[in-house]
Amino acid sequence: MTENQFKTLIERFRPGDYVDTGQGDYGIGKIIDIFSSEHSGSFFIIFRFIRNIGREPYWGGDGLLVSKERTIGIENWKKIHRKDIQGILEQKRREITESVDVF
User: Fold this and answer.
1) Contacts 24+ apart (CB under 8 A), 5-8
2) Distance (Å, rounded) from C-alpha 50 to C-alpha 44?
3) How many CB atoms within 10 Å of residue 34?
4) How far apart are CA 41 and CA 3, in angstroms?
C-alpha cells in the first residue's frame, strides 16, 4: 500500500464515528481520537469497543497502531450509525437476560 493510499484510508474516519471492524459485534465501537506521527507516518487510533461500554470512567479505550505496512484490516472497516449499535446492544441485553433466566 502506498503512502497516499494509506492516508486516504485513514482520512475516511473521524473521532466520533461508529465503526464495524468486521469482527462481528465484538469489533464494533466508536473512534474516540486519532493521532498521527510526523516521524513514522503511523496513526494511533483510540477505539472504544462495544464490549467496553459501561467502563468509561475506568477504560478510555483500546489503542490501535496502524501504518501502511500494518493496516490491521482497517481497509475493511465500515462506518455504521448509532441506531445500528443500539440494535446490537438490545440483542446483547436479550441474550444476557436469557442466560440469567437459564442460570
Assistant:
1) 5/68, 6/41, 6/67, 6/68, 6/71
2) 19
3) 18
4) 8
Q: How far is CA 4 from CA 8, 67, 68, in A?
A: 6, 12, 9
**pTM attached to this predicted model:** 0.79
Q: If you search the block for the grid coordinates 472504544, which residue do you land on?
A: 48
At 19, list the grid cell. 465503526
- Quick: pLDDT tens for 37-58: 999 989 999 998 887 777 766 7
Phi, psi dihedral angles at 93 (to 5 degrees):
-60, -45
pLDDT tens profile 2-35: 888 988 999 999 999 999 988 876 788 889 999 9
DSSP per-residue string spanning the chain: --HHHHHHHHHT--TT-EEE-SSGGGGEEEEEEEEE-TTT--EEEEEEEGGGTT-TTT---EEEEE-SS--TTGGG-EEE-HHHHHHHHHHHHHHHHHHHHH-
